[in-house]
Amino acid sequence: MNTSTHVNEKIYDLAIIGGGINGVGIAVDAAGRGLSVFLCEQDDLASHTSSASSKLIHGGLRYLEHKEFRLVREALAEREVLLEKAPHVIRPMRFIMPHRPHLRPAWLIRTGLFFYDHLGKRKKLLGSNNVYFKADSPLNAAITQGFEYSDCAVDDARLVVLNAVQAREKGANVVTRTRCISAHRENEFWVVHLESKQQGKYQIKAKALVNAAGPWVAKFIREDLHLKSPYGIRLIQGSHIIVPKLFDGDKAFIMQNDDRRIIFAIPYLDKFTMIGTTDREYSGDPALVQISTEEIDYLLSVSNAHFKKQLKHQDIISTFAGVRPLCDDESDNPSAITRDYTLALSKVQKGEAPLLSVFGGKLTTYRKLAESALLQLKPFFPQMQGKWTAHHSLPGGEQMGTVADLAEKIQQQITDAPDALTNRWASAYGSRIWQIVGAIDSVTELGQNFGHGLFAKEVDYLIDQEWAVLSEDILKRRTKLYLEFEPDQVEGLDEYLVESHKRRSQEIAA
């Protein structure tokens, strides 16, 4: 690695630290308003909190109990906006809440669902209704009725990547595996010191600094900027288990538990059920968070209290855990800590470069958070253009129709492509799939087959266009094929990536 530090002479309007959903959301909004933007992420895009969610775009029904009406109203309205922007990675989903009278009375749930139906504008999503369970229900026989309502499922990591792709297309410079070592003010600029394996140490200048470091937001202020953080941060661990399909159909279940928490059981990737999430304080390194035995026991217990099919530890195929960086509101109950976001703009002297830090936030409201962030920064950039993201599709969402229609079009061109492959392509890439397949008309032209419908053409696209470097980037965050791949297949993909990296390095050197 090059140990000397070189200077990128370009002065950016914004330097953004953090490649999770909030960082890329601010980057794409700012770039689309005519600002020059630099974003760095220390690992892969969405490699921490933003890929460890329950993979929902939802209003947050349970937040009504904590009187978070502003957050719920904003989130409910955003469901429709995001469905329109990204119909490939976001889809409507019906949720069934089995009624357990000793936990919440029916009138309370009906009241909550009435608010849920009417707090935000609802055009595409169906309203709530009562449901009654028959003998063929997957639920325990004692559960005879419940409630049903609408929210949306999302591929969380792909939502992040698509925003990053759009930010780049709007002119932003997005770099991954690049750590911000430190930053300091020099009059009207921030000097940002960076380090990556590719470029070694270098620095850039920016007129404003946005700290969207997620779980590291307060640590970054204290240790890298040597400033006082305006807010404390509470790291709340949320963990999930993935098991073989627990029930038929495409509806999810929202299960109430005796501790008044709710747990989702969500159909996942056609073959599995995802169960989560937990809520507990976390004090370790956010990069090392893992599900605990107690959390596994808790999730199994809640599932087994609801479903006829009883789960054991050995049924678990995979697990994942992440930490939500919530603004510390001094609540005693981790479930009651606000999920709303707080934006902290540092007080600056005249002519001094501003710092904007993002505390908290939800996947669902990332776009509104970005608009709020740019409203705070507008006094420093009077030339900034107006809001634009609400009515612009994300990459792949342009002129795609429905996922089913697109999958059919792909199959008309590549007649030997199996349904599972064309459906995955359509729901991952939308109309951008044509950039991968071009004019080819047979799967034999897709190059090396790594297994489970992953071919070299797709891998090359992910390297060239979506910042993929490692097999984990591709299998976990870009395609979700990690649940299917055997170790020897992962090894084959790793070998290809090493060779691809060598070839690209030689081309650049030449």
Automatic annotation (TrEMBL):
Residues 389-484 form the Alpha-glycerophosphate oxidase C-terminal domain. Transmembrane segments: none annotated. GO terms for molecular function: glycerol-3-phosphate dehydrogenase (quinone) activity. Its EC number is 1.1.5.3. It is an enzyme of class 1 (oxidoreductase). Its cofactor is FAD. It comes from the Bacteria. Coiled coil: none annotated. Keywords: FAD, Flavoprotein, Oxidoreductase. Residues 13-330 form the FAD dependent oxidoreductase domain. The keyword Transmembrane helix does not apply. It catalyses: a quinone + sn-glycerol 3-phosphate = dihydroxyacetone phosphate + a quinol. The keyword Oxidoreductase applies. PROSITE patterns: FAD_G3PDH_1, FAD_G3PDH_2. It holds the Pfam family DAO. Belongs to the FAD-dependent glycerol-3-phosphate dehydrogenase family. This is Glycerol-3-phosphate dehydrogenase. It comes from Acinetobacter albensis. The lineage of its organism: Bacteria, Pseudomonadati, Pseudomonadota, Gammaproteobacteria, Moraxellales.
